[in-house]
Structure formats: C-alpha cells, structure tokens
Amino acid sequence: MSQSAKELKTESCGDKDCPIHGELSTRGTVLSGVVVSDKMNKTVVVQIDYLHYFPKYNRYGKRRSKIHAHNPPCIHAAKGDLVKIIECRPLSKTVSYVVVEKKAGV
Questions:
Q1: Which domains does the chain have, with CATH numbers?
Q2: Stretch 64-75: mean pLDDT, rounded?
C-alpha cells in the first residue's frame, strides 16, 4: 500500500462498500485510468486507454474503454484524477470496480 492508503486507514469514512474501512473484498483485475466524470453519487467513470493488436497488419491500434467504479468518500476522486481501480463483487447493474488509490491530476 502507498503512504496515502496508510494515512486513510486512520480516518473512518463510514461507507460499508469501502475496501479500506468497510467490508468490501476485492479480487481479480487491477486497472489504472483517468476519471472522466464524477457527476454520479459515490460513482465515477474511469477511462482506460490500451493498445489492441491487429495480426493482419502486424500493428497496434489505440483503444479506450469506460468503466464505472465506486468512489468511497474517504478517497473522493474528482474529474481529471489518475486512479487505480480493483474488481469487486457487483455493487449495481453497471458497477463492479472500486477506486482504491488516487494520484494527482493529469
């Protein structure tokens, strides 16, 4: 864990779906991306940029994906922040990831 995650453990956010203070367990995929929207309540949209290989042309092309992730009150990621998200159990119809770390803006 990073220094900021250790500092976050001391304060309590009161969110049961927080991986640091609550009971939410994480598993599987770990991704990092940029928050492109924070207009929803306790949810952010994270854009993941990656390269896709085209065997026919022996080249790579840029692709992007938008993933909805739960944003705990203790982390409070805002638009433009670089975040790390981890897969968890489904929290709603579209949310199956949770923000665990926030870095400075892009």
A1: 3-105 (2.40.50.1000)
A2: 95
